[in-house]
Amino acid sequence: MQGYMFHRTTLPYLQAAAGGFPVVVLLGARQVGKTTLARAAFPHYHYADLEDPRTAERYRQDPRFELDAAPPPGLILDE
Fold first, then answer.
1. What span, in angstroms and rounded, lies between the C-alpha atoms of 64 and 67?
2. Given pLDDT bands bounded at 50, 70 and 90, which one contains residue 8?
3. CB of 41 within 8 A of CB of 14?
């Protein structure tokens, strides 16, 4: 069932929160769809997978540069 996303009633609340705050954090148990939800809510945001060793190293070396270099409109940091 890859590529399918259940209807998420939280999606508009997530988008509204992002409109009012500079940072929004999604927390939850493993494998419940946090990444899928974030990417569906913000499809035009740059996505950075921090589980990728090379990406994680870049953020460890110079996090401010990496954050500033992210293209608009926003950034999804995925642990």
1. 5
2. confident
3. yes
